[in-house]
Amino acid sequence: MTEFTVTARGDRVAYDRRGSGPALIFIAGAGPFRAMDPVTTETATLAAERGITTLVYDRLGRGESPVEGRIDLDRELEAVAALLGVAGGRAVLCGHSSGCSIALAAAARGLPVAGLALWEAPLGPPDGGAREWAAEVDRLIEAGELDAALVHYMKDIPPEYLEYWRDSPEFPALVANAGSLRPDGESLAWAESAPLSELCAGIRVPVEALVGEETLPIMLSAADAIVAAIPGAVQKRMPGAQHEWQAAPMAAELAAFVTAAFGTAARDTATDAERGTAESAVPRQES
């Protein structure tokens, strides 16, 4: 059943919650929302059966989370922050495609993230052109040319993918929701604004970069870059093709990752507490 939470600025965010235990929040990439993304819903359902809480939400400007005005990265991160509150104050984030750069930005800004599971992040190298590309998407949205904005957003995907989406019954909804693409473009431009190791220097949580067994070279390069940039990050190949994962194996992987991530956080907290106790017990010389 759909539930709602409200962000700091008053935006109402629709989400589905399943299961109990440590939490996982799914962050969609460009376009999809719950009603048109059965794979994520199935994945969340299966993962919740493995002892975790899953939250799948409609990003701002999509589905049951309509908003007025400009939707930028700051505003989307406020939605993520509200969902972290729903989750009990801390959660693993699972980003799909450009949802990965939003998840990375959330962690880099210090939101209470327990871990990052990043599925096929389309990250380019520093100064790879994302800033100019995102600016053009923004300009087209501002001009009301939503179809053109969506097509420009997808300009680097294989032509057959674009034709598939153009012929799909979901395309009109994707066009109507094109204003929600700004956080995607902004976060991807941020991810290219400096070396990823600098941008993610403050991230000290478990990270896994996941790619499908059949994928595009840019996804493999991005996964390599994430592993190189974030200490302890790992890369895994998973069943999946055409930028989509398979629900059952992904659910098993995510449930195990979330459980392990929260276990790591608990151990780190205990270690910090023990260190503090030990330090307080050290006699201090009077000056």
TrEMBL record:
GO molecular-function term, one example from the UniProt record: hydrolase activity
Ranges of residues in domain AB hydrolase-1: 24-249
Keyword 4Fe-4S among UniProt keywords: no
Coiled coil: none
InterPro entries: AB_hydrolase_1 (IPR000073), AB_hydrolase_fold (IPR029058), Carboxylesterase_BioH (IPR050228)
Source organism, top-level taxon: Bacteria
Positions of the UniProt region annotated as Disordered: 268-287
Keywords: Hydrolase
Protein name in UniProt: Lysophospholipase, alpha-beta hydrolase superfamily
